[in-house]
Amino acid sequence: MFRYAEPDTFVSLRAFRDDANEVFAKKAHRIGESLDTLTDEAEQGALKAANAPFPVVFAPPVATFTNPDKADEASLANGLALSVECDATPTAARHRLESLLGPATVVVASGGEWPEPGTGVLQPKLHLHWRLTEPTREAEDHARLKLARTLAQRLVGADASNTPMVHPIRWPGSWHRKRTPRLARIVVLHDAREIDLQDALERLQDAAKAAGLHEPKGAEGASTGTGEARETAELVRAVLAAEDYHAPLAALAMRLLKSGTQDGQAVVLLRGIMLAVPIAQRDLKDGTPEPGRWQSRYDDIPRAVATARAKLGERPAEAAAPGGEWPDPVDFLGDTELTGAPVLRPDHLPDALAPFVFDTAARMGVDPAAVALCAVVAAASVIPDEWRIQPRVHDDTWTESPRLWGAVVGDPSIMKTPVLKAATAPIDRLDAEARDRHAEAMRKWREEMAALKADKAPPGIGPQQPKLDRHLIEGTTVEALTEVLRRDDEAKQRAPSGKVLCRQDEMSGWLASMDQYKSGGKGGADRAHYLTLFNGGRYVVDRIGRGTFAIPNWSACVLGGIQPEPIQRVAKEAADDGLLQRFLYCLPSGQGDGEDRRPDAAALARYAALFPALAVLRPKTGFAELAPEVRHKPVVFHSDAHRHREGINALVKAHGALPDASPRLKAALAKWPGTFARLALTFHLIAIGDAHARGERPPVATVLTEDTARRAAAYMREVLLPHLLRADALLFLTRQTGHARWIAGHILASDDARETGRVTLRDITRAYGALRAPEHRRELLEVLDTLAVMGWVSPEPVENAARHPTGWQVNPKLHAVFAVAAAAEKARRQRAAEEMREAIRRYRAEQPR
To answer: What is the pTM of this model?
Structure first.
């Protein structure tokens, strides 16, 4: 029964006189590495009680305490069992309770006897003990266990004095000496049998309700009923505030599984939420430190998910991972030598983009991820900024618009400029057509104005001067940008989408030009203007000599290429104001020769037709442009789509807890919940615009589907995240995870890990000296926790839940995904090196001697 008692808690080995109200013996035993010493001391205590000259009962509570001197409820450390003293109708009581809870772990004949009314047949009095799958540690859990014991007692008329966990209870192996001495003995032992407290409590509550029993007063705080009744946001808040862990996590686990989330992904998500709890608050309960409180709940999450699955009467699709199905491992290292280059798949993108992306990349011989990023940002730039999406279910104060910034980082050999030109070619056409229309409109306007002047019309009479529609700007300044985005009567230009695409063929020049006309330090006024450009919204311009005017929406998408050395210099010299963290990055893999063939005409035509359709797509009214100040109801996520949003949030929180994560990386990831909403909305509207362009029935505009959210989440997790980590390592010249990177590489390279499917603490510490010392054990365990959150490993169960695991199962998908990709990347580099050597050899052979 003490299998899961936490180390350094105390068992109160107590014996009492049966013929007098006094303690016979009292000794505190500290729980250590083994329970053998507890068994020995209990045996000695029972023997001493048996040999006393007067009746003595050896009856330690089945619980542990925080100190060796007291055994009261205020000192309770661990409740270990749901125990019931069946002194009346013991056989029927046992049958009733075991029909509700399943077989007891231990059934003890206490030595007393109960005469059956009418027949006088004697039945042995029974003590029933169900061991908990984990001990209670917190006050609310102690209250739940006490409530469960109370309900069980009331259902069968058992001894009410035993409902507190601190109540003494006779141990088997001791003697009952009230009358004829009888040995208290175990009559049934199911050593593997355990119960989950919350499940047991719910069963007992249902049975009590059916029997017309009311829960005892003061049990409200112990009831689990509030767990499922609370909104999901409130459950998450309770965890993040460290107010309560057990009930909210159990309720969230059930909701995730009911929504179709796989077991492994549910574990990753819940652990991500737990990792977001501030470290300083994790072990505080009502302001009182409770060491190990957070860790025990974190370690228990796989079991909580498995319990929720069992309640649903289902089995996970696979049982390979402890606690559920193996999730897809996350590439959190950003290292092609370890995990290979991220692989873009067609299902990462909207159907309207994928054919163009892969056809263009194949012909150019470039990484499809570079074409994809440029195409996505380009499409977002022509979508009217009136479109908004509400990321959360109920909070309508937070909305996002389809506004994205992208940067392709690499040497000139990766063909940044051709990729940019290809992806933005439809916008060039929109701009060229707008200039042609404007030129014709200006010609007519001049003719009308000339006619009015000839007729000597009064000043101010005549048509308004036509405005030039702008979708694209290049090499601009803040001053020039204000002229494009202003919408007052004096404006000469306008942005029909409420924003423009700021295309920078070489971003280093754009970044260097900030404040070039001003005196002062780096990162001044212009940078501040560009920072707000990412957020959109009303913007007031004050210019000396030009007066004041308001821009209804200061907004732009930014897309460009930059070489590694200039962006490293910018990152080093510029103020850490978050400008670089606003970008989605792509660091393409090596350049190939490309395919010498004709383009896929259908793919190019579909891509080109998308942009005019997006440019005129308006919320609610379909295609009618309304005033910029008019706000429409935002698009919302389908209920099934929220789990993908929550998965991205959990991933962000998990990365924030990585060892050695740079502050700049954390700042970039902090924008990802909003970026996911923007990207998902862009994908959603691309599908609608594509349907209109093809004459098909479009999706419902007001609700973003689960499939669209899945695509956006997969694109961010499997493509954009690895590229962001590569950018972080490149820009700031530091690995975001020193220890995690080494251990992950060890797992991928280890033949033992591949063959046995597991890795142990001993394996790691023997191979990695940096974390070998005992004082680094906690740091090592935190790294492995991170790897578990990322889906690389899963801790093996331990007999004592209070102890840390010593072995981890390795996700078999690692070698099927990353190792193969890494091998392909290694082979590609070898081929490139061989081709270079061959070219040098041919060159030398051709030179005259």
So the answer is: 0.55
